[in-house]
Amino acid sequence: EKYVDLDQKRNDEAREIGSGLTFQTRTRWLYIRLNYVHRTLDSTSSENDYEENRIYLQGMLSPFRPIRLFQ
Known about the structure:
Layout: E1 12-24, E2 30-43, E3 50-61
Antiparallel strand pairs: 1-2, 2-3
């Protein structure tokens, strides 16, 4: 049988913490955001434990006047 321990009860404890910075460029309509997230999962089943570190880089355009792509 492939899944022998299906009746096993499992307790998971998840924790997440993060931080971010937003930079406004000189153009005043371009923003750049840098985020960091640390995530941990502690489980009573050791094969399900994991730790994760992520870094996100995000750009946002916000012009003063709308940009029309189609007329």
